[in-house]
Amino acid sequence: MNKAILIVEDEAAIADSIAYALRKDGYEPLHITLGEQALASARATPPALMILDVGLPDISGLEVCRRLRQFSDVPVIFLTARSDEIDRIVGLEIGADDYVTKPFSPRELVARVRVILRRAGGPAVGAPAFELRAAEARVLYGGRPLDLTRYEYLLLKTLIEHPGHVLSRAQLMDRVWSDAPDTLDRTVDAHIKSLRAKIRAIDPAADPIQTHRGMGYSLPPA
Ligand code: CA
Q1: What is the reported pTM?
Q2: Rounded to the nearest whole angstrom, what is the distance from the C-alpha of residue 171 to the centroid of ligand 1?
């Protein structure tokens, strides 16, 4: 399945942060800074989705999209810095699937990528693949059992039982380490880290546990 996401953006810092968030979610970002190159790339190797900045150094993102639509139905999310550009994106009906206004959160953008690809019948990257077998105190990932310690199991179970909910470290400590009241934040982090490693051992591209900086952890919505 195609996980390639073409990022067309001339600001390296923005492109890097998007690419990082996409990679964390199992996508394969490709970064291009010019509109003409983006069209050539999309023609040669069609991506699953294009993230397209409106303000590019050569031709505008709107023009890129207009020309893209002559040969491709690939979903497009526009990045825009100005509200008057939004009117043009919406008003021109050039076939944009969505837009985000700068500044934006890369995580929020990736969430929209996921929604659009799911809607388009594309790859369900990041979809929860856990199977909780509470009676056996076991969790399967992608049909394969995870070899978990007691606290890793309880931690993962708590996350699985609350898909799409951000659980703070304090909430996780309450629920998972109820018999160990002196637990520290970093104990939670360490167990999340080892859980991620064990999931990656089954699927190197998988990283379903999301970190919400300053807030906690979550699994994707069911
Ligand atoms: Ca720009």
Answers
A1: 0.55
A2: 41
